[in-house]
Every structure is written in C-alpha cells, then in structure tokens.
Design brief:
The protein has 424 residues and is an alpha/beta fold. It contains eleven helices and 18 strands. Helix 6 packs antiparallel against helix 7 and helix 7 packs parallel to helix 10. The N and C termini lie far apart (65 Å). Bound molecules: flavin-adenine dinucleotide. Flavin-adenine dinucleotide binds next to helix 1, strand 2, strand 9, strand 12 and strand 16.
Length: 424
C-alpha cells in the first residue's frame, strides 16, 4: 500500500490546520488555506486514486472552484461526457427536454466524469503544494482536546507496508471533511442525522443503453419520489445510472432492488436497456441533505462538505457545495488564525464567518431545493409541471431559467406558480 506522500509527519510537527478527508471539500479547504500561506496536514484513510460512488455530474459551482484552483483545464484530458441539456420524465411518462444553461465562461453546462479520476486531480494538486503535508492510509478515530474541551488535534491509525501504527497530531483547528459517515462529525455533534434528510443512493455503469444524447435524464417514478432515477451519459457510450430515495421512505426495500426493477420493467426505462449491459457492480452510499441544519463549527473544529450536510436536497448534487464550503471554511480559518497564539485552538466565535457564508451563499438555495423536493412528493404536481413544460414554451423557458438561476427557483416553489399552471 502506498501512503507516504510528503514524508511521514512527526507528532511534534506544528500545523495551522488538520484537514480530515481529501475528497473535494477537504482538498478545497487545504488548497485555499495553503495558498494563503498556512501549514496544513491533509489526512485520508484511503490511498488515491480511490473509488467514490457518485452520479459523476460535475457542473454549477464545481466548475467555478475548479477554475479558481487551476484544475478545470485538466478535466477535458480525462474521459468525459459533455452536458448540454436536461430531460425530465414525469410519473405519467410525459417528457420534456430543455437546454441546460451554460456554466459561466463555458459553452456547455458541465461534465460527466468519473469521481475517482476528478478527485485524484484535486488530491494531486494538494499533495504537490509546498504548504500541505498529505498522508494517505491514515484513519482518524479520535480527537485531541485541551483541558477546556476545545479540539486541538486528532488521533488515529496509519496503515502502511510496515504494518499499523497509532499516531496523533496537533493543530489550531481540525476540519472534518470526512464525508457522509464523518468520524469528526460524530465526535463533535451528538445527534445523528435524521433519516428523512438522507437519501440512500445507488449507481452502476451500463454500456449499450439506446437513445443517449447530450442531456442528463431524470425519471420521477413511483416508489422513489421525491427522489428520482437518473441516466447520465458518460464517455465512450457508457452511462451512470442510479437513484436516490429518502432513507425514511425505504421501508425495508433495498435501493439496488428498486433500481434493478426499474431497469428491467419500467415502461419508460426498460426498453432503453434491451441491449444494455451492467459493467461492474452497483455501489451505494448516503447523501446527507442540506434540508437538515446543524452547527458546523465549535471550539477548534469545523465541518465541511457532506460532513456538514450540504447536499442539494432536490438534485442530490454535493460536489459544488463541498468545494464551496471548503473555500468558505478556509477563508474564515485564515482570518481567525491571525489572532490565535501558539498552543491555542480557534474559538467558535472566531469561526462564525464560516457559518455566515454557508447561510448566505448555500443555505437559501438548499432551502428552495428542499421546498421543491417536498412538492415532488406529489405525483400530480410533477405531471402538471412537466406536462405543461412539454406543451408550453413559456413554462419550458421558466424551467431553463430555474436551472440557471437560484432566484428563478424561488418562483417555481411558490404555490401561485402551480395555481397559474392549472389555468388553461
Ligand atoms: C450515489 C450518489 C450519487 C451522487 N451524484 C452526485 C453528482 O452527480 N454530482 C454531485 O455534485 N454530487 C453527487 N453526489 C454527492 C457527492 O458525492 C458528495 O456530496 C461529495 O462527494 C462530498 O464531498 P466530500 O469531500 O464532502 O466527501 P467525500 O467525497 O465523501 O470525501 C470524504 C473523504 O474522507 C475520507 N475519510 C472518511 N473517513 C475518514 C477518517 N475517519 N479518517 C480519514 N479519512 C476519512 C474518505 O476516504 C474520503 O476520501 C452523489 C452521491 C451519491 C452517494
């Protein structure tokens, strides 16, 4: 197993910040901090490139942060698909296909690209940064605390060719970027994430699906609402096919069985799979929705990305908010570090600007998406909206506007909008 990336750090080494988890949120936070001259220890229990279950859509906010970090230009060199449109299919089978607004500075909306590959780009950028010490194969299992209870470091186990070794590291702040099953989150926040705010999501890769285009496809089907089944065209004629269903709606069913049943029998979906082949296994993971609000800072700690429950509750997109929250946390930490003496942890009061940035730039949009998610539980509203969008250019335009602007989304979640739709 390869684990050593920048030399094994010593427990006495001094770091400004320890970032636990080197996915999008962790790499973003580490890179923005390092670019400000801060000394960062970046830890991950896996060795990169590591697999990551995802729909592989990379668009919206992800594009902006990847550009800022100098990574965007490298994505087209990976096998990728280009997203230009969105196909929505109502529970009654009615379809509407609309152009997806272009991402800023681009001539299309985004990419589909395997997460394993795109995460590796971010990780390599972090690993090569002179201010970041990156250590793979290190699983964090505990937090170090000051006598007053503030977090001041982590403990865990390094697994290498030489075996396993317990180690601890100290810093002024610990960033939990360790995903949906966050160990740091569990150690600092006592309440578990409620099931009605988590999607159980699964995906597999199929070849040979007929009728793939430049559109990503969302199927709103019975038994999955307010979640949906997706077909995302990828490079080389492959497609990422999956679904997300609220964990509270599972009621003993398994999401893999629901996906397989839809692929085999759903009237709008199964005919597309007549000559299709599942390549590899179907994988699953949890999606912690931003509809659940919790504290993401405390004395000496910050949570970002999935650990902070920042996934869009309607679309299930989390990479953009993971990268953005990493950036906002880094900006807040960087300012706070100026007033922090050696041997001290950052107090939660000094980290308030991170919570404020999440509220200002991410929370409002997530709450609109949450309203949209709750409306999507009602089949008749989806049939009405998608049916009207299919028939009326002005409703189709509203849908396009909604995809391009958070402000427009507010109109679509208002009851007046649906009343107007009912009018002939
Ligand atoms: C099926 C599915 C489909 C999805 N589709 C999309 C999509 O198409 N587009 C989109 O934008 N989002 C999608 N998402 C959401 C997206 O995957 C997440 O929001 C995103 O990965 C969050 O990034 P992160 O950096 O916070 O966490 P992660 O990407 O999960 O990274 C966490 C890292 O922490 C490490 N780690 C965990 N525990 C420890 C520990 N104890 N010690 C050290 N390291 C640890 C892990 O090894 C990992 O590398 C999907 C999610 C699922 C499950």
């Amino acid at each position: 197993m390869s684990l050593l990336t920048s030399g094994i750090p010593h427990s006495d080494d001094k770091f400004d910040a320890i970032v636990v988890g080197a996915g999008p949120s962790g790499c973003s936070c580490a890179l923005y901090l390092a670019n400000s001259g801060r000394k960062v220890l970046l830890l991950d229990k896996s060795s990169f490139p590591r697999a990551k279950v995802c729909g592989d859509a990379f668009s919206g906010k992800s594009i902006g942060i990847a550009r800022e970090l100098g990574i965007l230009g490298e994505i087209p060199r990976l096998p990728h698909g280009i997203v230009r449109g969105l196909l929505m299919v109502a529970p009654n089978g009615k379809k509407v296909n609309v152009p997806f607004p272009n991402a800023s500075g681009m001539e299309f909306a985004g990419y589909t690209v395997e997460r394993q590959r795109v995460d590796y780009l971010f990780f390599q950028r972090a690993q090569n940064h002179k201010n970041i010490t990156a250590l793979q194969g290190f699983a964090v299992s505990g937090l170090e605390r000051t006598p007053s209870g503030a977090v001041c470091g982590v403990s865990g186990t390094l697994t290498s060719n030489q075996g396993r070794k317990g180690m601890r590291f100290i810093a002024k702040v610990v960033v939990g970027a360790d995903g949906a099953a966050s160990t740091v989150g569990r150690l600092v926040v006592s309440k578990p994430h409620p099931k009605e705010h988590i999607y159980s999501a699964v995906r597999g890769y199929w070849s040979g699906i007929s009728g793939l285009s430049g559109s990503i496809e969302l199927y709103f089907i019975d038994g999955v609402l307010p979640g949906y089944l997706w077909i995302f065209p990828m490079a080389n004629g492959m497609a990422n096919v999956g679904l997300g269903i609220l964990s509270s709606d599972l009621k003993g069913k398994h999401p893999v069985a629901i996906l397989q049943e839809a692929v085999d029998r759903h009237p709008s979906i199964a005919p597309r799979f007549t000559n299709a082949k599942l390549e590899g296994k179907i994988g699953g993971w949890a999606i912690p929705n931003g509809s659940y609000k919790k504290a993401n800072t405390g004395d000496g700690w910050v949570l970002v990305g999935d650990a902070a429950s920042l996934v869009d509750p309607f679309s299930g997109e989390g990479v953009g908010n993971a990268l953005s929250s990493g950036k906002y946390a880094a900006l807040a930490i960087n300012c706070a570090l100026d007033g922090c003496k050696d041997g001290e942890s950052l107090p939660s009061s000094a980290l308030a600007s991170y919570e404020a940035s999440v509220a200002r730039f991410l929370r409002k949009d997530m709450m609109n998406s949450y309203r949209l998610q709750r409306l999507s539980r009602h089949k008749f509203l989806l049939n009405l909206f998608i049916g009207k969008a299919a028939d009326k250019p002005e409703v189709r335009q509203m849908l396009v506007d909604m995809l391009g602007s958070d402000k427009e989304k507010e109109k679509v979640v208002s009851p007046m909008f649906y009343l107007k739709l009912l009018l002939p």
